[in-house]
Hints:
Elements: H1 18-53, H2 58-63, H3 70-80, H4 86-98, E1 104-105, E2 110-111, H5 112-145, H6 149-164, H7 167-181, H8 194-222, H9 226-233, H10 238-275, H11 281-290, H12 294-322, H13 324-335
Antiparallel strand pairs: 1-2
Amino acid sequence: MTLEITAPQTVEPIAGTAPSARAGTAKRVVLRVISGIGVLWGAITLSFIGVRLAPGDTVDVLLGEQPRTPEVEAAIRAEWGLDSPAVVQYARYLWNVSHGDFGRSYVLQRPVAEVLGSQAGPTLALTGAALLVALVFAVAVATLTARRRRARAVANAVELALVSTPAFWLGIVLLSVFSFQLKIFPVAANKGLSALVLPALALGLSLGAVISQVLRDGLERALDEPFAVTVRSWSVRESELRLRHGLRHAALPAVTLTGWLVGGLLGGAVIIEEVFGRPGLGRVTVEAVLAQDLPVVLAVAILSAFVYVVISTLVDLLYPLLDPRLRRDAGRGGAR
């Protein structure tokens, strides 16, 4: 027998290794941030155009229902630079908004940033609690009913009822049962967690019903994958298979949908805050619309666009954490 010795071969680096994956992820983050900045720029530009295209004099548009006096008119013209060319006005408006200066509300006689800042806390608490309710509901219903025919039929009926029910009507029902009759939760307040329960349920249950349908479908597909058969061969409990392994494979479509729907929570908060008598951006927006307080309305619109950009960016960056295959794809893209 002849022993044949061959020269060692050079091992080619595999695309998608850690350095290239990090480079691909960094590129993805930069592109996503640039895209988000473009969306915000578009929202600010549309706000500027909306003021200029509104019927009537710009001063009257910004004043709303307040009487027009020479002193107030001069202050508005100086603040908005109305005596300057349109390009200069636009550059000035873009600079101010990018620095958090949304002008002054002449209806409330306060800076708009101060008005929004004083009311943002209750709204953020409400939307955060509603999102938590939606996610807990969706995960619980999806994991308990996936591939279980009778439980799935009941869940479908409940989800359809929740999706079809307007949030304000659900809020009224919750108030009637748990506040007026059972007297468990306060009717209208903003103190403590108990005052947040019913508004969060009214706002979050319909969102959770939509997410649970998508999550359950993805979980049922994941439980039929080969990895599920392998995990079952290890004598792993069915609940652990669903929660620890199945949900991660089923989460991508649900996370995408959640990112799209979270932006709607701010719109729903407008009505829910009115139903439950809570302070927040919703009440401020309604009052600004009724009083024709355009600077406040425009600031709320820009803030909504900012929240949507932040949420969608976070969701997009969450994908590689949920699915390692996306990290490998990012590495291949960065290695090219």
